[in-house]
Description:
With 238 residues, the protein is of the alpha+beta class.
Amino acid sequence: NGRSVKLALSATRDVTEEILADTILRDRFQVIDLRYWWFNTDGSLVAPMGGQNIPGRYRGQINSTSPEQIYAQVRRYRNSYPDKAIIHEYEASAQGTWAFLMAGGSMLVRRLEYFDSSDPKRYTQPPDTDDIKPLYDFINTHLAASLPLMKPLDLVSGDSPSCWCIGQPGTNYLCYSMQGDKLKIDLRDCKGRFEATWVNPRNGNFIPLTSADIFEVGEICSVNTPDNMDWALWIRAV
């Protein structure tokens, strides 16, 4: 009908990999859907083969994964296909949702509800999403315009491996530590004036850095999370 449409590649892992390896077929898809395979917490792969008539309900077992494995899965495809949207479906915890975001994920579906009688013209918060609402509100209020320009960056390290960063180099950075520890952030390529503040993932509140934190652009900064819970650090040019 003369309309421009976008195609999502939603298939098992072996089918997805074969299509993405074909340069002609790959360019026809704008979205990669990762819902049909995942890695367990021990790193073992769960991936049904294509052509086996696997029902959609099979993927409900994805709850056996972890935020670290979700990050690794999404980050691999974000690195390989930076021009494509990446979607996933699993009932992630708040930390799992942060992991998906920090890996460069585009849209996370926790579940698809059956249609009910509510007015479709009025927004109703999906059930069981209170734990990720602070993240949603933070993005909607502060990062809605800049987030599409941000990408995963290997600029942060910490005492645990679950420390990640996305950003728009030289402008905007969001760092996340899942277990709360001392973070080292490489800002040697930044120039100008920047501000940094902690974001509490559990309630969305902002907390300023303490005087003990060393935060200077143009060098590797060292900061300590407020406690041993998960925290996000928002760094932005002003």
